[in-house]
Design goal:
single chain, 303 residues, alpha+beta, eight-stranded antiparallel β-sheet, two-stranded parallel sheet, 10 helices, 33% helix
Length: 303
């Protein structure tokens, strides 16, 4: 029956409505229409995904080299995943560029055909990690902090990972969190809770932003400056009311919370910290700034 549908209708109506892996099935099973599913078509899908996720100019495939169908297919597939996770990674890439963690030739971060082929052999390989971690793994090897690679690396076979000099850390499953734990509500399997030493992060993306702020704050030739300090003790009602519980909309800033619980998920009185990134993640900004909010009696420990 598909043989009776004009090619132009396939190009304009049918193929755009299919997911990448569905379009590839057409190529594999329908000899008459297989020629319509080309590398050029997938490049168009990549361009569309980059625009949809606000990633244009931030990340791309290597278009200077020949584009094998299998390589373009991998890139098109992963960019089609993570409608919530990719935009957040785009904001992280903008911050990384300001802090000179990106290559000397700047943005976009370019995914080579060789790397995609070697490290992304199948859809199954991509989905072995939670989605946010899998997405970061695609470009993390292109970032460095003072000549140290910020690639996501597996530390052992027990679920421990490193990024640069940060770690080890691991994913905390929903089942590990005690009943009533604040991170259990809103738990995201695609962007899970992370344990790093004595600190607990609600999401991998929050962990990543915290690392950028405190572990990788300055690349080559960069520095940081404190412009204002105000001490609010834990006994002050503003501490709990304003610093830790008030919601901050995405347009105002990016929130990265974590808890110092001493490694005890049942800690009834953990110290809660919050960073709010107020500048550096929008497309027209060249200066990064953030607020550090937390207890004055303790600073987070990095183990």
């Amino acid at each position: 029956m598909s043989d009776l549908v004009p090619d132009d209708l396939w190009r304009r109506r049918i193929l755009p409505s299919l997911l990448v892996h569905e379009a590839v099935c057409v190529r594999a099973t329908c000899r008459v229409k297989a020629a319509l599913v080309t590398a050029a078509l997938l490049v168009e899908r990549i361009v569309g995904s980059l625009a949809r996720h606000s990633l244009t100019g931030l990340i791309d495939i290597d278009r200077t080299a020949p584009l094998p169908f299998s390589c373009v297919l991998r890139a098109a597939y992963v960019l089609e995943q993570g409608s919530n996770e990719w935009p957040g990674m785009g904001r992280f890439i903008r911050l990384a560029a300001i802090y000179r963690l990106t290559p000397a030739n700047g943005l976009p971060l370019v995914l080579s055909a060789q790397w995609l082929t070697a490290h992304l052999p199948s859809r199954t390989a991509f989905h072995q990690l939670p989605l946010a971690m899998a997405i970061y793994r695609l470009f993390g090897h292109l970032l460095t902090h003072r000549r140290t690679s910020l690639a996501l690396q597996q530390a052992d076979d027990n679920g421990l990972y490193w990024i640069g000099n940060s770690g080890p850390f691991r994913v905390v499953s929903l089942g590990e969190l005690p009943g009533g734990h604040p991170y259990a509500e809103g738990y995201k399997r695609t962007d899970p809770v992370i344990r790093c030493g004595l600190n607990l992060f609600p999401f991998f993306s929050a962990f990543l932003l915290h690392r950028r702020l405190l572990w990788w704050p300055d690349g080559e030739g960069m520095g940081r400056r404190m412009v204002l300090r105000a001490d609010i003790g834990r006994g002050d009602p503003r501490y709990g009311r304003v610093l830790l519980t008030d919601s901050i909309t995405e347009g105002l800033g990016i929130v990265a919370d974590f808890r110092y619980d001493g490694g005890n998920l049942n800690d009834a009185n953990p110290i809660v910290f919050r960073s709010v990134i107020v500048s550096g993640w929008r497309s027209n900004e060249t200066i990064a700034a953030h607020l550090w909010l937390g207890s004055i009696c303790s600073r987070p420990r990095h183990l």
